[in-house]
Amino acid sequence: MGKIHLFLLVAFMFMFCTSCIEFERQDLWFRYDQKSDVLRIFSLYKGIFAEGEEFDGTEKQELSSVMVGGRTFFFSNWITEYHASKFKEMLDELSSNVKDEQEIAADYDKSAKAIPLEEYRKNWLAAKESCSGLLKLLLDNVSIQNGKFFIKEEGKLSGWQFVEIKNASELAKASNRAINQTMGILPDVDKLTELSPESIALWLKAGKENHQWLSFENGVLIVRIPLSQDDFVKFKHAKGREIASSQKESEGLGKLGSILESDWWVGWRNDEAVFNIGFSSQEFNHLGMPVFSGYKPNVIEWVKSEYGLLEQQPDIKTLRENFLKSGSVPDEVVTPLIPERR
Questions:
Q1: Which region, left, alpha or beta, applies to residue 155 given φ > 0 means left and ψ of -120 to 50 means alpha?
Q2: Closest to 310 (Cα-Cα) out of 320, 300, 322
Q3: H or E stretch covering 102
Q4: For the chain, what percent of residues have pLDDT higher than 70?
Q5: CB under 8 Å to 85, separation ≥6 — which residues?
Q6: pLDDT bracket for residue 67 (50, 70, 90)
Q7: How confident is the model at residue 253 (pLDDT cuts 50, 70, 90)?
Q8: pTM of the model
């Protein structure tokens, strides 16, 4: 698989895969400080449990990978996942010049050959550089601290994470460059998604026009995805049914907006799905959603023996607001990074 294909495929994988470790509910509170260009996210996981009856090796490995550091989830990856060690592997792959020329030739042969090979080669190398630059920025500017596990009043295992993203607007710009340049050289972008030909054409057109997929405007994160109106409607209903199914509830939930309790707005206009994440009028913004039903207390004893539990339920509101305002995290509520086990 080519380097550029690897970058996009892993990105899509993070957006649509799910995990073995599950949680009943996740709540995110976030604040973008425009002056310092820092986005802070406080993530609370309520009712953490393992998918099967037993807490097996795979699930222990997955939870351990979080405790090593550099990994966080956004609604069990229904939005996306940040995984630093995977990004480092991708960066190493992109940094290698081995087989570049063979991959360029192979991709060009699969393309429509609308431009000369030398121009395609130049675009391919520029896309590779943009993808590498984005990964470097992510690894340099995203930090994740794991809060200590605790038991909520109803006796369910819960946990939290403190996520800080520096140079957030620069990361948005780097993301736009990487996406646009990659769209311009992929010969088979239509095979990466189930989108209609109309939406694929909009994506490719957007890549040529330096589309702003991500931007911060008045302190609000704006996501603009070129999409036909039919695909937008299908997306909303499909995501709603997927989430409802995981909760073992009625498909009548149907629409994503009826499930995700949040400070956001989503709509379609001018051939774009537009997501406004947060409102500029609020100091703190919130996204919350029930994720999985069927909680089982099958992780508590292992977590207690491996990482320990807070003796008392923490003052979540105070900790959350102090972190979102200043980045302050008391040492006594943080789990030290655990060395990765080989």
A1: left
A2: 300
A3: helix 100-110
A4: 79
A5: 65, 68, 70, 71
A6: confident
A7: very low
A8: 0.84
